[in-house]
Amino acid sequence: MFELFDHTADLGIRVRGASLNDLFREAATALTQCLVGRPDAIQPLSETSCELESPDLEYLFFDWLSELLYRFDGEGFVVADCDVNVTGTSLKATLRGEAFDPSRHEYSHEVKAITYHGLRVERDEDGWQAEVIVDI
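-> structure tokens emitted (136 positions)
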């Protein structure tokens, strides 16, 4: 489960998941919704992998979203869905999606960067929660 919230000139993402794997998968879905106006139009036509290691969980969350943003901006790849395996401060993921096609997809927001402002990843009684602000 995720929600987007306004933050001055930026956009906030708040994500919940029963496990860390769920949390990071939901974060990918939330970022895709920030980027693409009709995420349901994205087809899982190709598959690629991603491996990350960071000094702590919050940096891993930041690095994960930054990697997905790079794949969108740098490679034109939009994520339809993914499998994520978080172990400690390492992540392995399989991303399924396709190249952004303006005839079938529409831009939602121009996300310039993931920020450290307000970044948090916490365990609570229901699982995990994370919050991050993206610069639009």
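The chain has a mean pLDDT of 93.
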